[in-house]
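Here is one chain, start to finish.
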Amino acid sequence: MSMTLDAYNAFCGSLPHAQHVVQWGESHVWKVGGKVFAVAGWSKGAAPAVTFKCTPMAFELLKHAPGLRPAPYLASRGLTWLQRVSDASMDDAALNDYIRESHRLAGLALTRKRRRELGLE
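Its structure:
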């Protein structure tokens, strides 16, 4: 069973200093320190497509796996973001792990001072 939008929002909201906004055509966007780490939506009632940042190695390994694809817009600009459109090769537990890692990677993009302010150091 694919993650529901409520489960996605609950998980993202459990991460340290995560902030939720709805933008970009009703997408549920999660940020840490102003940096986006996950986006979900575009589902019209079905399980949401979930977009997340990943390492270059994970991107190369997963970008053609069933149910995953390079994230529209982001990946075409050279960014290592994937989008899960089904749970064919990534179950919800693994997706949560990748969202958690995306949160960590977004935090690393903050200044050292901002990371200290947020307690992410």
